User: What shape does this take?
Amino acid sequence: MKVPAHIAAIMDGNGRWARRRGLPRAIGHREGVKALHEAVQVCGDIGVKYLTVFTFSTENWQRPKKEVDTLMNLMARAIDDERPGLMENNVRVRTIGRTSDLPEHVRTRLESLIADTASNTGLTFILAINYGGRAEILDACKKAGEQGIPESEQDFASLLYDRSLPDPDLLIRTGGDRRISNFLLWQLAYTELHFTDTLWPDFRKDKLLAAIEEFSKRQRRFGRI
Assistant: This one.
């Protein structure tokens, strides 16, 4: 099985998973964290080099304040809970997005986690938080206005949130929708797309490995014959 170097994931369906079981949406988000924990473990074990997950979008602020607060508190708790395992498994954590706008109790935890894991050499785990693809391109254009117009695609890519990240090989979206929802608009130009009706809390090891197996059978020509 050919393992993609970089997997990106839109983790959709936590709320619907809870609603179908008559549970509060917050329970669905907690189960989603468990699924993410497993995805990080599997990716590290099979040799994926980068895993980027859409954690919280610039549009998610439009949700009810109670749910946003719940998500932020869950994020802070997950950072505390997952830190020992991330260190033990040699995972390096990074973020992309307008993280300066996050609540202080989330931002400071993220900064601490990034610093603590900076020397780890295994899977690089990227959290897209307060992220939007259009916002990233807009912010890159602002940098270009200060530094000069880029002369190539590579020059423009260097203005994005993390210039060191390669483009994803495989994008996985759970939850049944067939769209990329303002995620990594620049980077997904030649990414292979995998859509599944499975809700994120149910997207566990077997389904992740099946998506990778399906990816490994595709031919990627990048415009060539």
